[in-house]
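Complex record, four chains
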Amino acid sequence: MISPVTACPVTIRIQADDFDIAREIAALTKSRTDIGAVVSFSGICRADDDSAKVSALTLEHYPGMAEDEIRRHADEATSRWPLNGVTIIHRVGRFMPGQNIVLVLTASQHRQAAFQAAEFLMDYLKTSAPFWKKEESATGTGWVEAHARDDEAAARWTKS
Amino acid sequence: MISPVTACPVTIRIQADDFDIAREIAALTKSRTDIGAVVSFSGICRADDDSAKVSALTLEHYPGMAEDEIRRHADEATSRWPLNGVTIIHRVGRFMPGQNIVLVLTASQHRQAAFQAAEFLMDYLKTSAPFWKKEESATGTGWVEAHARDDEAAARWTKS
Amino acid sequence: MKVKYFAWVRERVGKAEETIEPPATVRTVEELIAWLSGRSEAYAYAFEKPKVIRAAIDHAHVKSDAAIAGAREIAFFPPMTGG
Amino acid sequence: MKVKYFAWVRERVGKAEETIEPPATVRTVEELIAWLSGRSEAYAYAFEKPKVIRAAIDHAHVKSDAAIAGAREIAFFPPMTGG
């Protein structure tokens, strides 16, 4: 029997609906007294990109694999850092600037583990989870190209 | 005249009342379309400490200097990273395990800046902002001792 | 075996998924890409830069030299841009 | 000059703040600590390990060799444990 105090619940959802950070944090921390640090990362649709002003963003994903891939990285995060909880929510569909796209929550006794795990999860979501962004702007519609800086960010977590 | 789109509002509050992360994030991101990443850190009162089980924590601060010191670090963060907003709320008073103590929010176009600035601010809050914790446990009441690991965490941000 | 396409690979191929029966001489992911490319101009266009294309077998990323024997589902897509 | 004490320094001194008039020979923070320590056992106890004590002049952290001339408010406290 695993004590609820030492458990690390992992929640992964891919959904069209928006998320409520406060509710997700409450779900992660409710009736627990062993959590000292909660880090949240919200990724938001931006209007200002490198090139033309973005008017909307469409997120496509690979159902089934997306959940599996995120689960693998969440499991790796919980094995690498002493975490007390992980929540990952990735939205799919069409978004306007200012709207939420992704949420990563990590809870731990200490802040370093929560910060590092959240960064690790975001770096891998960017480069390895099967999601693709299509941008709409005044100059037309096009698929977002992968950034080398995201590959570099993910590579720093590779164990040698 | 500073365009509201490029401004980096800094909010610093020291208060007895709890904070609402969702409301603070909304205040930071409302009617803006240039923010791509929001990182939040919540520090929570823990029952399980290195020694005896903590039943309550009292936070004392140096009014006036606490605000000034946090402001200096927030200004340094906004000069070191391209941020679109910073909110720092530190509670004072007596807390039970599970209750919020501190909130740091950072907003930026890109996730790395938001993550790094939030970590920087937390490391400096821990070692340099004039707050002191007193713990109550079954074995008595005592002031929390500073951790060498917190000094080390803060030292990594020192420019050589 | 089922094949799925995503993002601009899907748009160029003109379909999201299909069932294919490649000959036994097609053993790896890159051989499957070459075989698909020969089917029509749409496929040739989708796979014109094979090194850019990512592949997954049964929901796990694989390299281009991965064997396709036993695969239930193979997917082709551009580099990921989620998060 | 106003002096403030926090956390266990405050508890040991037995007061949160006071106004003091040290002699002109007391020029630095560490000289002020030595002078205060000589006032009573309570002060001696509060400052028994002077290297542990942190000081601030007018809301800014200072080192023990900082001059106190012109200071409006000097504060003494243990290492910070907030956040």
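Note: Chain D touches chain B through 16 residues (CB under 8 Å).
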